[in-house]
Amino acid sequence: MSDSRILKKRRRIQRKIESLMNVLNCEDDKEVRNRAIDDLVSIDDKEIEELLVEPLIQALGDRDLHVREMAAWKLGRIGDERAVGPLIQTLSEEEPPINAIFALAEIEGERAIEPLLKALKHVGLTAKSCICEALGKIGGERAVFHLLRILEDRRLLEEEGLGIMILFKQEGLDKTIHTSADPSFHVLTEILLERPVIRSAASALGKIGDPIAVEPLIRRLYEERTILERAEKLGKMADCSELVEPLKQEIQDARKGAAQALGMIGDPRAVEPLIQTLKDEPGLRKEVVQALGMIGDPRAVEPLIQTLKDENREVREAAAIALARIGDERAVEPLIQAQSHTLVAPQFLREAMRTFKKEKNLEAFKLLAKALGRKEPIAIGVAKQLRRKKESVGKVQCQVQIQELKRKNQEARREAVLALGERGDPEAVEQLIQALKDRDGVIRESAAQVLRRMESRKTVEPLIKALSDVGWSVRSEVAQILVEMGEPAVEPLIQALNSKGRMILGAVRVLGEMRDKRAVEPLIQLLKHEDQRVREEAAQALGKIGDSRAVGPLIQALKDKSQGVREIAARTLGKLGDAKAVGPLIKALRDRNWSVKFRAAFALGEIGDSRAVQPLKRALEDEENMVRRAAEWALERIERGMTKSRKGPVLDEK
């Protein structure tokens, strides 16, 4: 678009914004004002969206909650940092706009943790629940830590309806708590024993799958009041016979919970009871179909085939996914028929193709491939032609066609993504990175796969630049692609440590995940960086790399003015296990902040040095419950190590 046309468009949009803001400022009719804000947030043009930021910030102070909610939502989508201060300001209210919480988390990532925690002390119940959800989405060490602290708050646990069940279903926690060796595992187990069970904590323990958790979970099951809670908490770790009976109950939620848990357990004995429930209403049929797909028993194939004709779209799609997962030949023709009658989307046939390819069933694979090749929409065909003849298609023409394809159906947009991958020039890479923001998960996944397949020399620089993207989800996906790229990305990432803002933070995180020793010295230098967040990320990355050169600098970091840096330094020293850290960690047990003491105690337990015994015993008297628990865990671990040492090595009788 020419400069003059862009200027005209900006003026037109500016006039529209002014007109809508005038309505918001002068009109009393609530319905009219709601339409005005809806029109304002529907303006969706990347080239001029910065014009919206200031008016939307103004709308955050509107008297109407709907106006404020919509303004906060749009500011989160735009991702402009000018909105951060005003969004934080809204959190001072008892009932802030819910979208302000999620917008702040989306724009700021980990930097949003502190203002969210501050708001948690005074906001209402619904906002508390949403703050917990936002912290779970942010993830990372600090979010995990504070979520555990929230679990310890009796007042919060007793407030009816608090949505704390979401905490341990979020990606950040699921990735952080891995095994019974993780201190967080023991904290959760004790919480289950001492307090009313939070369903999400039980769910997290179920995902860990460690047998240590079974006994406390089952013990608590018999103290719960509802069948639904029993079904959900038993998860994948118990005998399915406990869950079959609730399927016969009249309470729909109980039956739904039982179906979900049966799918997690995967016991074939559940297949027949689940099949019997397929005559129920659509909401329950969907859960049952999903459970049958997770179990993967061939007995479910015929009932699932019948469900492809269900009147409810979600049930049909769940059945298609289940059949694709089971990979039985009997499902091939019914899936093809369902797709040809537009009962299910083509993507489910592709999923089945992957299963048959994996199982080397070439005949079924070819039948599905042939079916997918029929009656191809024109837009998709255009995209494929562009991919086949990319050399003969001019850059401008290709760009225009791709823009057209983006306005059409999902399959067409996916083909456009593939066409961009074939081009492989810098502009195509930029557009693929933008496709990571697509509203459709299939498109986002396709864009990520294409970027992974492209030559690293073409993608590494744009991907590193994308680490500064305003969207948290984009930064996360880009980071994962760079980690998988490996060797070619290391030196450019080290160079990116000279940048600022989100880019340097992203580069540090990726280098930590790569665990390449070349990054150790540059990361050590960042422990002195002026930005607290950079120092925190550098300390965490050094722990992941695990090089002994970091021990001395991390000991110095225990004196950092930032609580977060001291906390992560203590945790990292525990991972490294160097005895030189024992003395400094003992001193850290007297830190002014409980979270640093907590991490120092666990670190001393991980190192296992007897010099820590007396200081840890003193920590058993700490006023903070979490510190006392950490000290107890550390002392038990050190004692076990000393006992093994006294017994001496076990000799092989052979």
Mean pLDDT: 70
Distance between the termini: 81 Å
CATH architecture of one domain: Alpha Horseshoe
Q: What is the overall shape?
A: globular
What share of residues are in beta strands?
A: under 5%
Specify Rg, calculated over alpha carbons.
28 Å
CATH class category of one domain = Mainly Alpha
Strand runs, count: 0
- How many DSSP H or I helices? 41
State the secondary-structure class.
mainly alpha
Per the CATH scheme, the topology name of one domain is: Leucine-rich Repeat Variant
Largest sheet: none
Helix amount: 55-70%
Low-confidence residue ranges: 151-240, 246-255, 374-394, 646-654
- The CATH superfamily name of one domain is Leucine-rich Repeat Variant
SSE topology:
Blueprint: H1 3-26, H2 30-41, H3 50-59, H4 65-78, H5 84-90, H6 98-108, H7 113-120, H8 125-138, H9 140-151, H10 154-158, H11 171-176, H12 183-194, H13 199-208, H14 214-221, H15 227-234, H16 241-244, H17 252-265, H18 271-276, H19 282-295, H20 301-307, H21 313-326, H22 332-340, H23 346-358, H24 362-372, H25 378-388, H26 395-405, H27 410-423, H28 426-435, H29 441-453, H30 456-466, H31 472-485, H32 487-495, H33 501-514, H34 520-526, H35 532-545, H36 551-557, H37 563-576, H38 582-588, H39 594-607, H40 613-619, H41 625-647
